[in-house]
Amino acid sequence: MTKQTLSFQAEVAQLLHLVTHSLYSNKEIFLRELISNASDACDKLRFEAINDGGLYENDTELKVKVTFDKDAKTLTITDNGIGMSTQEAIDHLGTIAKSGTKDFVSKLSGDQKADSQLIGQFGVGFYSGFIVADKITVESRRAGMKFDEGVRWISGGAGDFEVENITRPERGTSVILHLNDDAMDYASAWKVKGIINKYSDHISLPILMEKEEWKDGELINPSDEQGGRQPGGMVKTGEWETVNKANAIWARAKKDISADEYNEFYKQISHDFEAPLAYTHNRVEGSTEYTQLLYIPGKAPFDLYNREKSVGVKLYVKRVFIMDDAEALLPTYLRFVKGVVDSADLPLNVSRELLQESRDVKAIREGCTKRVLSMLEDLAKHDKLPETTASAEGVTDVVSAEDKAEAAANAGKYTSFYNEFGAVLKEGLGEDYANKERLAKLLRFASSTTDTVSVSFADYKARMKEGQEAIYYITADNAAAAKNSPQLEVFKKKGIEVLLMTDRVDEWALNYLQDFDGTPLQSVAKGAVDLGKLQDEAEKKAAEEAAEAFKPLLAKLKEALKDKAEDVRVTTRLVDSPACLVVQDNGMSTQLARMLKQAGQAAPDVKPVLEVNFEHPLVKKLDGSVHFNDLAHILFDQALLAEGGLPADPAAYVKRVNALLV
Ligand code: ADP
Ligand code: MG
């Protein structure tokens, strides 16, 4: 076949025009695209060779070589993959087969600025070479074809290209970029290696470059490797070195990877010095195919509570690095997870915007979320050492030494996880409706009877009193305030456990959880106390009678405190304290309102209800006291203090108390 000149398909011409005329914000991606093509070509050869081993032509070491020639101004990427026949070169490099790219081209408006923004969102693949080259020569021979059936393809990236038949003993493809003057810095080993490390480190294929050495160079500035030595410059040594890690740990089989290797990889991607708490590694097959390798760190970063903080998952497409912090791959409440997702289905040039919309990404996100949750469930399950059970026959130990060691290694991990990340996990109740139930099971709290943060809703339910119909909890600024809150008094007296919620996120999160496994959650600081069946008839009667008898006093209190309290009523929830504050059933707690205000956010002015303990001496003294007004205010302000708040006018409060003390 003699040389022939062919025109590009109209869409290709359009695309090329755009590639060469629009300024790419990151030029360097051309190398990623071309190396990815080389890697694809090797994968294809490997696949076809399954049925026809002869295709290897006795050369089974698949690799990519990157070379440059400063004088000739070329950068060449060579692979020994499947190669192309002449017809394939014409078809694959002259037309656009991919529907995605076709779609893209059809969206082009002709407005250069808008179009160049669009182009960043789509893969331009092979044509990205024209970002740095004003001419590209491709020489190739398809595996299994005769030496003299090679092809040379040349184009200047305008309307047409040339093809001719050549003799090429080497199997595979060389893409020779004739660099334009602005791109001459890509004819540098240092620059090229940097790009390969950034994007192609985990391509499983070795990427080779020729070693260089300084020629009569004098070390002028040792800290500056590039400019440090003058005059002769770098010269090639004829030796080749692998410049990528060529090891995508996640692409290997689980059974071949040691725990040490997993841990090392974690340290590398997370910049953490410590080993992770747990990891999960899976290949997911089905309509969306991807591999996930996800880690739970041992320690929380200092900026964990910053919800803007990026998610620590890197996205790869077929082992080519695409982006860090791919927030679309995990919900925000799992932002502590680190790892890698490698998809086989996404385009190389996928943008963040596109990620948000992709159906594949949605499936990946759901899959990753489920995986992390099961990893946590597993940790939770093994948090406590199993108790050795003594059987009737006197056999006390049926657990193997191995199982014992494993149990010991896993014990306490969930507690440790929860101490670091528990508060963030709670955000999931509001954020991830679909997994709410699973999340609720993973939550742990301190309680009025347990000091450590270790009580699950299920534990609580198992310990509920006969006749108890709700899971009781209290929110407060800290554990001491929660534990000593007046609202807990009656629960203590009756021996009812109350969960103590002291994380800032608790009240917000619990808004999204009305019940656990059919049992309603009830704040002890909201609404009138209704212990239901837990209260005996005598108590109920006494309360009703008191309410009746105290009516005039309540009216007077209400009048005195009309600016502060929504209502004043008698209560049975108090034992030792004279009064406490509660809010209406569906109202925002005073504590949350206070927090929001501290954070500078808008919060409704919650007027709480003052509940008084009619059996308390101070309350009994109120009636007929000459200090009625002062006592009323002190009663209210003290109730506020008891739950960690501050009187609206602290000085007035001090004055009143002092007046009485004197
Ligand atoms: P994509 O890689 O997404 O298919 P590209 O524009 O990167 O799109 O490449 C277009 C086509 O050109 C490839 O699908 C492949 O058929 C062919 N091709 C490109 N580079 C090579 C190569 N190094 N070896 C063999 N074929 C190649
Ligand atoms: Mg490609």
Secondary-structure topology with pairs:
Elements: E1 4-7, H1 10-21, H2 29-49, E2 64-69, E3 74-79, H3 86-94, H4 99-107, H5 112-119, E4 133-141, E5 150-155, E6 160-166, E7 172-179, H6 189-199, E8 207-214, E9 234-242, H7 259-270, E10 278-284, E11 290-296, E12 312-317, E13 320-323, E14 338-343, H8 352-357, H9 359-381, H10 401-410, H11 413-431, H12 436-442, E15 445-447, E16 450-455, H13 457-462, E17 471-475, H14 479-483, H15 489-493, E18 499-501, H16 506-510, E19 515-516, E20 519-523, H17 537-549, H18 551-560, E21 567-570, E22 579-582, H19 590-598, E23 609-612, H20 617-622, H21 628-642, H22 650-661
Parallel strand pairs: 2-8, 12-14, 17-18, 17-20, 21-23
Antiparallel strand pairs: 1-6, 2-3, 3-7, 4-5, 4-7, 5-6, 8-9, 10-11, 11-14, 12-13, 15-16, 15-18, 19-20, 22-23
Helix pairs in contact: 11-12
The site of adenosine-5'-diphosphate (ADP) has 17 residues, from helix 2 and helix 3.
Oligomer: single chain
Shape: elongated
CATH topology (fold) name of the largest domain: Heat Shock Protein 90
Provide the CATH superfamily of the largest domain: Histidine kinase-like ATPase, C-terminal domain
Strand content: 15-25%
Number of strands: 23
Mean pLDDT: 86
Structural class: alpha+beta
Structure description:
The protein has 662 residues and is of the alpha+beta class. The chain folds into three domains: 4-221 and 231-242, 2-Layer Sandwich (Heat Shock Protein 90); 249-381, Ribosomal Protein S5, domain 2; 444-661, Rossmann fold, CATH 3.40.50.11260. Helices cover 35% and strands 19% of the residues. The protein is built from 22 helices and 23 strands. A nine-stranded mixed β-sheet has the order 1-6-5-4-7-3-2-8-9. The longest helix is centred in the middle third of the chain and has 23 residues, at 359-381. The radius of gyration is 36 Å and the shape is elongated. The N and C termini lie far apart (114 Å). The chain binds adenosine-5'-diphosphate (ADP) and magnesium ion. Adenosine-5'-diphosphate binds next to helix 2 and helix 3.
